[in-house]
Amino acid sequence: ETESGRYTVSDIREELLRPGRDPREKFVVPKFREDVKEIGDLKDGMELEGTVTNVTNFGAFVDLGVHQDGLVHISELSHKYVQDARQAAKVGEIVKVKVIGVDPAMKRISLSMKALIPKPPKRVRGKSRPTIAPEPTEAMAARATGSAKPSGAPRPKKVRPERQVLQKQQTRPPRPPVEAVPPAPKQTMEEKIRLLQEKFGRAR
Hints:
Blueprint: H1 3-16, E1 47-56, E2 59-63, E3 70-73, E4 94-103, E5 108-112, H2 137-145, H3 161-171, H4 189-203
Parallel strand pairs: 3-5
Antiparallel strand pairs: 1-2, 1-4, 2-3, 4-5
């Protein structure tokens, strides 16, 4: 008798001394409908429970207890886009499906899982969020320092820039009057000729 054999016998003896305890994992079986025994008993719209027997690139096969597995196409696994069917179904998993097509002659059963899942709400596109006006910097600083004026106090009136310029112009002292300069006497034609003759005579 080897050492490993002795330990194995010891483990078996300990398990036998504990009646009613099964060391294996709990085995769960699907609840097949009693009125569905063959593929001819299936009808569109039936909601059944089955076990996933195989997962491929195009979908998952489910055993419904009719000696013929049904196919849940990858497009019928979920409302969301499924790139790999293994992300939505696993072998040995018990799932609920809905019959969406039966062909007894070809022995084909089309199933859907997403038909029993409520559709997610649609998102409304183009709906903008309400914009919040930024708070003035002075009001924020006053609030931070606690020197904000009560709401009942009168606020100082703001004067527009053009009014400020007008007020400055009105407050300036008046300019002194300018003495009127008498206009120069008009020259006669004879005086103009004489001045020109004197000017050109000097130039020579």
